[in-house]
């Protein structure tokens, strides 16, 4: 089968499709024929910065985290799915596999595809939406009436975070480009702040900040005393956080079907929308990764596995 398998440090421009052996599912695994996969920052960061050891990603490994596809084979202990089911899911960071024609995955990382989404749209849901949900719920504990600042609000995680924060009843200040202001307000953002402006012009009464662009030195001071900050990239200075009497944590998402099913339920109820920026063919993976690296997407970028 065709797959993007990484065997060690490599430049993005040198990544190529390889022919490898088609896998078979073990007891609690299903084998999925991948139709489309979401493209995420880790897909270009890991090879570009040789982050395999830091992220606990043993090589060789197949790139790609989230996907949509069809179950073509089931393991001996499968109880949730059957051959022919259309599913979505996200691999763990240490055991990826979505950039391939076929992939075995634990059934507890997968749910049925939302009935009101295309396979293209569905491929962009798992990782970004679960990251946003876990950050807002488990890490920031967002409550109705709280004031929340969301960085890179028009990006893959940000679009879900804005909507989920509004569903929770928060007052949302979205950071993005001026050209996306009306779009972000349509998602529920109460205010939109242009990322090119000085953060010192923002108020310092936020209850929570979700940061995906490593802006802690500028934004920690915008929190109330006792406020919470979460970074999806570089960790904030604990010394600075303590001096400001706020908490600062850093995390990477945890793939699981429970949180993903909550997302699917919201999508099927029409409460959560999915936005796709660009769709790339499998053979155009390198341009796709470079586009993702540029960091100006409005929504998710998708790779069609053909």
Automatic annotation (TrEMBL):
Gene3D superfamilies: Medium-chain alcohol dehydrogenases, catalytic domain, NAD(P)-binding Rossmann-like Domain. It comes from the Bacteria. SUPFAM superfamilies: GroES-like, NAD(P)-binding Rossmann-fold domains. GO terms for molecular function: oxidoreductase activity; zinc ion binding. It holds the Pfam family ADH_N. Residues 10-303 form the Enoyl reductase (ER) domain. This is NADP-dependent oxidoreductase.
């Amino acid at each position: 089968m065709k797959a993007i398998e990484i065997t060690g440090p490599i430049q993005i421009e040198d990544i190529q499709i390889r022919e490898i052996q088609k896998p078979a599912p073990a007891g609690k695994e299903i084998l999925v024929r991948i139709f489309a996969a979401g493209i995420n920052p880790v897909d270009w960061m890991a090879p570009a910065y040789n982050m395999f050891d830091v992220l606990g990603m043993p090589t060789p490994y197949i790139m790609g985290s989230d996907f949509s596809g069809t179950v073509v084979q089931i393991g001996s202990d499968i109880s949730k799915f059957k051959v022919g089911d259309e599913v979505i899911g996200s691999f763990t960071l240490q055991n990826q596999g979505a950039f391939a024609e076929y992939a075995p995955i634990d059934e507890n990382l997968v749910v049925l595809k939302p009935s009101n989404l295309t396979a293209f749209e569905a491929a962009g849901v798992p990782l970004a939406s679960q990251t946003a949900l876990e950050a807002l719920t488990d890490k920031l504990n967002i409550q109705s009436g709280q004031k929340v600042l969301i960085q890179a609000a028009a990006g893959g995680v940000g679009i879900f975070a804005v909507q989920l924060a509004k569903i929770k009843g928060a007052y949302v200040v979205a950071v993005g480009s001026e050209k996306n202001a009306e779009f972000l307000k349509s998602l529920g953002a109460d205010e939109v702040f242009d990322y090119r402006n000085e953060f010192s012009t923002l108020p310092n009464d936020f209850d929570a900040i979700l940061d995906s662009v490593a802006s802690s030195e500028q934004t920690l001071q915008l929190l109330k005393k006792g406020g919470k900050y979460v970074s999806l990239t570089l960790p904030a200075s604990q010394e600075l956080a303590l001096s400001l009497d706020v908490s600062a944590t850093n995390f990477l998402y945890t793939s699981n079907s429970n949180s993903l099913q909550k997302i699917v339920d919201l999508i099927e109820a029409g409460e959560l929308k999915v936005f796709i920026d660009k769709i790339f063919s499998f053979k155009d993976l390198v341009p796709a990764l470079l586009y993702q690296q540029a960091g100006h997407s409005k929504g998710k970028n998708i790779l069609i596995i053909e």
